[in-house]
Write a structure and sequence with these properties.
Helices cover 25% and strands 16% of the residues. The chain is globular. It has an eight-stranded parallel sheet with strand order 11-10-9-5-2-1-13-12. It has a five-stranded antiparallel sheet with strand order 14-15-16-21-18. It is an alpha/beta fold and 534 residues long. Bound molecules: beta-D-glucopyranose. Beta-D-glucopyranose binds next to loops.
């Protein structure tokens, strides 16, 4: 199936605003498809599977970092931003992938990691040697009698102090792992270099990239003077308050500059903020008209399976983004969180809820992000042996939190084979027994499967022109049920485990468990979602 790269209303040649309602599929590169049998997914593997993504109905693909990296944090530690790591292929493979995606009507967004480099980046090597690149990072003297204590009380997101001491006695800042030194965005050379990096990928062969997912978009600017946070409790409250290293007002100037740069290219290239902000209003600031196009809605991702809580998040998200004229984005899973099948309770209950949540998400106005394997209903893999784990947050937090490997297990394409079709050999993380039953091949053509549910939902979403970027309003519904109307369409979600009866809103179009219609009323099964034509 070939789609046109048009989005809504392009005949006039006006801007399409394709991103306002796009369904964007996240490919975690090392776990998607391995073409060469080294156990690690790669760019050629992705290119081979692009037809699957086009047929699924995705509008765009987001690729996690595939740049030269020692892989201390799954590639979010970049040693050279213009080189493809040999693990994943070559620059020629990247160009070929871009060309093939565009030919299928798929846009491609790539990660850019501007908050920190790898400690192997040539700049950091120079900084350690006392060279001028030291100004491009945050080096400070220590505190305490002999400077043996860190410069301030900041903690790394992965656990432990956010500072590491180097042989000359000074300390450098790393909000993540020690192998990820933070860049100093007050330094003009840093800014100029990232402009050049963005241009490099925008101008690459194959049509260039269609946008960037900006890693830690809220963290690049630190409060002047790098002040202490305060009490130990406050120090650990990452994500729920304004910290001197997150969501500082100064980041917006950078994003405005990037928007100008993106707008100087044809084809509506976009910027997507991975930003953790303390409220929906603060998050909306990243998507003001002259800033980025989208920001991930982590409030929605974190929301429990509970009707009032979900309704509140939907209302707050829509109100906040509407206040700046931006679309909302919805996301249920990504490579940093426990898969939503498991978050919602696991087993058959978790799967029922996950399927219903997906249909809810795809019926809401805005753009939706899918994480590879969610269309297969994959659960989190919770029993990986510790010695096989690679997530740095696991090692820095004594195994208590940060278990991010369980959502990164290679996905199954076939019922059997050494890695269920992921590649010719075993994958870099072991897949659970029975993983083949969830595979693309096992689910294809099976009308009750989660894969066919996603395929149908995405096809319907495209056909029902009003879905995506249009209005919505809530309808009266019994406790535990969400019901809302979109143009010509109603969505009902029963978050209770028991069935609920209500007046039939219309003709069922698609459901995660068939509703039982009798005359004017309908019994909606527990943990289910139905789309209705009205
Ligand atoms: C990415 C993580 C990564 C971190 C540091 C995040 O937000 O999604 O996977 O560990 O940034 O780069």
């Amino acid at each position: 199936m070939t789609q046109q790269l048009t989005g809504a209303a392009t005949a006039s040649g006006t801007r399409t605003r394709w991103w306002r309602d796009a369904v964007i599929y996240q490919v975690y590169v090392r776990s998607f498809a391995d073409s060469d049998g080294d156990g690690i997914g790669d760019l050629r593997g992705i290119e081979e599977r692009l037809p699957y993504l086009a047929e699924l109905g995705a509008d765009a693909v987001w690729l996690t970092p595939f740049y030269a990296s020692p892989q201390a944090d799954g590639g979010y530690d970049v040693a050279d931003y213009r080189v493809v790591d040999p693990l994943f292929g070559t620059l020629a493979d990247a160009e070929s992938l871009l060309g093939a995606a565009h030919a299928l009507g798929l846009r491609v967004i790539v990660d850019v990691v501007p908050n920190h480099t790898s400690d192997r980046h040539v700049w950091f090597r120079d900084a350690l040697a006392g060279g001028p690149a030291r100004e491009r990072y945050h080096f400070r003297p220590g505190t305490g009698a002999d400077g043996g204590l860190p410069p301030n009380d900041w903690q790394s997101v992965f656990g432990g102090p956010a500072w590491t001491r180097v042989p000359d006695g000074s300390w450098y800042l790393h909000l993540f792992a020690p192998e990820q030194p933070d860049l100093n965005w007050e330094n003009q050379e840093v800014r100029a270099e990232f402009d050049a990096i963005l241009r490099f990928w925008l101008e690459l062969g194959g049509g260039g990239v269609d946008g960037f997912r900006i890693d830690v978009a809220h963290g690049m600017v630190k409060a002047a003077g790098l002040p202490d946070i305060g009490t130990p409790e406050q120090v650990r409250m990452i994500g729920s308050q304004t910290l001197p290293f997150f969501d500082q007002d100064g980041v917006h100037e950078i994003h405005r500059g990037w928007r100008e740069l993106l707008d100087s290219y044809a084809g509506e290239r976009i910027g997507v903020a991975e930003a953790w902000a303390p409220s929906a209003e603060r998050l909306a600031l990243y998507v003001r008209p002259d800033e980025l196009h989208q920001a991930f809605n982590f409030q929605f991702l974190r929301c429990p399976w509970d009707a009032p809580a979900m309704r509140t998040v939907v209302d707050e998200s829509l109100a906040a983004t509407a206040s700046v004229g931006a679309p909302t984005t919805w996301v249920l899973s990504n490579h940093d969180v426990v898969r939503h099948v498991t978050r919602y309770g696991g087993g058959t209950t978790g799967l029922r809820r996950a399927r219903a949540a997906a249909l809810l998400m795809l019926a809401l106005p805005g753009s939706a992000y899918l994480y590879q394997g969610e269309e297969l209903g994959l659960p989190e893999v919770t029993d990986l042996p510790d010695e096989l784990r690679e997530d740095p947050s696991f090692f820095r937090s004594s195994g208590q939190e940060g278990l991010r490997d369980g959502c990164r297990v290679p996905i199954p394409w076939a019922e059997d084979g050494p890695s269920y079709g992921f590649g010719p050999g075993a994958g870099w993380l072991p897949q659970p027994d029975g993983w083949g039953e969830c595979s693309v091949r096992a689910q294809t053509g099976n009308p009750g499967s989660t894969l066919e549910l996603y395929r149908e939902a995405l096809a319907l979403r495209r056909r029902l022109a009003g879905l995506g970027d249009g209005p919505m309003h809530w309808l009266d519904a019994p406790a535990g049920v969400l019901a809302f109307a979109r143009p010509g369409f109603v969505c009902t979600v029963n978050t209770l485990s028991a069935a609920v009866e209500l007046p039939a809103p219309g003709r069922p179009l698609l459901s995660t468990s068939a509703p039982d219609i009798s005359g004017e009323s309908v019994r909606i099964p527990g943990d289910s979602c139905t789309w209705w034509a009205i």
